[in-house]
Design brief:
This protein has about 140 residues and is of the alpha+beta class. It has one domain. It is about 30% helix and about 35% strand.
Length: about 140
């Protein structure tokens, strides 16, 4: 199961006409990668930078959960670019690599996470924690 695009061209001798034939096969990956052979499949991901309008160099991860965990860790690191400009970065699933056969299969990129969602969620947790601490302090009865 892999996607491939093939085309062929032939030039016809009469009036310089060009005949082009296209064969397109598109593979839509299962919602859970690695259903066929989990021991040899690696998923391929890339970070999209909206300001640059380009994808970063792809990286491999075991599955969506591990890729999201790595992306979340970078997004929550205050020194990381993904944190400082969280609205610009998103994680995309772009294909699979079969370590046994060496085949790469690509698919239409699918967005699976946004850095801003992790950063905003962390900011909201911190704000709730501060509010809860203040409420406790305001309602504390000091015993004499």
């Amino acid at each position: 199961m892999r996607g491939q695009i093939k085309y062929s061209t032939t030039a016809a001798g009469v009036a310089g006409l060009l005949s082009v034939a296209f064969v397109i096969q598109i593979h839509i990956p299962p919602t859970t990668p690695h259903m066929e052979n989990p021991m040899h499949q690696e998923s391929i991901y890339s970070i999209f930078d909206a300001k640059a309008n380009a994808f970063h160099t792809p990286f491999f991860s075991t599955n969506h959960s591990t890729a999201i965990r790595s992306f979340e860790q970078a997004a929550l690191d205050e020194g990381h670019e993904f944190n400082r400009h969280s609205e610009d970065y998103s994680l995309w699933f772009i294909g699979q690599f079969d370590a046994e056969s060496g085949e790469l299969s690509s698919n239409v990129p699918v967005s699976i996470a946004n850095a801003r969602d992790f950063v905003h969620a962390e900011e909201e947790r911190a704000a709730r924690s501060i509010a809860a601490t203040r409420a406790v302090m305001d309602n504390t009865v000091y015993l004499k």
